Amino acid sequence: MGAFRNNHYIDIHCHCIPGIDDGPGTLPEGLALCRALVDDGIKTVIATPHQLGRFDCFNDAQKIRESVCSLNEQLKNNGVELTVLPGGDVRVDERICRLLNEDRILTLADGGEYILLELPAEIFIDIEPLLFELSSLGIRAIISHPERHPVLPRRRDILLRWLDNGTFLQITAASLLGDFGPVPKKIAWQLLESGLALLVATDSHNLHSRRPRMDSAFQCISAKLGGSVARLVCIENPLRVLEGDELKSFSYRGRLKA
Fold first, then answer.
1. To which H or E segment does residue 50 belong?
2. Residue ranges of domains in the chain, CATH in brackets
3. C-beta separation of 227 from 3 below 8 A
4. Which of 105, 165, 104 is nearest to 132 (CA)?
5. Is 36 left (phi over 0), alpha (psi -120 to 50) or beta?
6. pLDDT tens digits, residue range 222-254?
7. Of 50, 146, 182, 183, whose CA is between 20 and 30 Å from 154?
């Protein structure tokens, strides 16, 4: 297990529900992925099936809740000590606030405080109007894997404006390890070292190309930026998301801010 000993990672972005999106296709594959999450030091995971985009009209909120309930029952029956909570990996869409009000898409952990947003890879759009609209509902946005977006890292002016408006960045553990190539790795470390990214998650889909890599990322962050920063982005801030609390930031030198 990892260097955190009695603490456990919390994964706020994972595609572990079988047969619902591009994660595991079958229940045995889903159980295997969940066992791998436990082996990686994760005890609590927010299942975030894709919503909207190419999965529009498929994964509505109630379907995900029911699938999470079923998966938790299967985990218990198979002796897998993992707690799964409902959420969504929501493709940016002008209907998001209306769909939230209609209970058709999910916030993270179904808590009504944070929503995980996936930017379209095909085109870059400024989502500031959506961020303001979400803020009016009391919901804070978390942008998933910005290091892998083809344009966003080059639009630092817009990115900083989003962050100034209370948006947060979640980078993928595997990106820090180079699994997506040298460019996403470089950008992921830049976002982390600058204190712009405050969350790390697995975004795992399977045991082949997209397996959990949280513990290895934790070790690398500890070595480069210190254990306090590693704990913050892999354990403490994910827990704050889970509980609906404010995230804690840190300076670019790796010292936690007061």
1. strand 50-51
2. 9-243 (3.20.20.140)
3. yes
4. 165
5. alpha
6. 999 999 999 999 999 999 999 999 999 987 554
7. 50
